[in-house]
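INFO  loader      accepted 1 record
INFO  loader      residues=454
INFO  predictor   begin
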Amino acid sequence: MNLRQLCSTLLPFLLIACQGVHSEQKPLALPQEPLVQVYFNHTESSQYQETLRPQQRNGDDLEQQIITAISTSKSSVDIAVQELRLPKIAQALVERQKAGVKVRVILENTYNHPLNESPPRKTPREAAKYDELRTQSDRNSDGQISAQEANQGDALLILRNAKVRVIDDTADGSKGSDLMHHKFIIVDDRTLIVTSANFTSSDIHGDISNPQSTGNANNLVKIDSLELAALFTQEFNLMWGKSPLFGLKKPFRPPQQVQVGNTTIDVQFSPTSPTSPWSQSTNGLIAKTLTTSSQSVNLALFVFSDQNIANTLEQQSLHNVQIRAVIDRDFIYRPYSEALDMMGVSLSNKCKYEANNHPWQKAITTVGVPKLLKGDLLHHKFAVIDNSAVITGSHNWSEAANSSNDEALLVIHSPTVAAHYQQEFERLYAEGQLGLPEAITQKIQKAQRQCSKS
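INFO  predictor   done
INFO  writer      dumping tokens
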């Protein structure tokens, strides 16, 4: 056998071997759009050193992206976020206010209570969050929070001590909107950060009390655009003005489109009144965007409970669009989950089914839960359409997000940006548990038997 024949014989095996080696290596960092950059706290293409839990880990440091943006501010920083518990972010805000920068912060009222205040009517989830805050602030791990520890570890106390003005969704004189769920920052009326993450250790880095946790899977997009920042400033000012407006007290804000360099971005804010046409709502914009798909739709969602969106996806599936989805384990198999529709089944809640429930006639098996470390959640709210557009933001695909909560939704038309989200989706999907687990099948059958008797 001559050299050429030998090379021809060995080449396929060499390629397979090289592919195997490459699969074990971390993926290469993808190119970014200059004006629209995206980051993921679970990406395998980068690493960073945590500060609250001093350890090296995979991921983009979303907290540092936020701190860097704040630290570059010259005139103003506006933050609207459901929950802010990271002390270094608070310290960065205090430093900029001392430098003469105008700092304004809006929170969800449930989480506008520092350690020295007891929030009213804590749910088990809220109580767990305050326990996590206590653990985070207890620097010497003696089980007690000294005044010094609280002043250094409690972000809200840091802001209050520096007299940084913070309001919440009770500023309108109400008991609060259903949920002030925004997660955005505007710096100097130009730089915009929109993320799915709350500013907490559990949403960005991991649970303080669980060293194995790497945080809830989240993404962050940073955009350089005067025009888009102006639209978010309008939304912020509705909540901050002399007569603050939250939830359904706000006027209807239709979708608007902005050109950012070579990238087109659609934006819409929630909520939309249930009396308005659904097609004009934020969920309506999601559905409208999904109807443009001709090849594929890939979903990574915390919650998916909007029936109309599920019906839209079914029609796309019937037109040979490949639909794949990973949904958080805590929500995917609940009776109201549209993932069940996609898999062609229904689960009753005390023998009652969701209104207009519609299991798909041609069920799909490309729906499942991602493999995450114990305690971590899939907190994304994104979809990738035809590898060319992305739906993202703070907006869960639910009725509450659509018609009750304060939310922001972006549709980013950019293959470069879409590639980042697609890489994150493929990472989650590759090790996901797909299809209907036997335990859920048995649960559905048991409910059917019990309901038929009653």
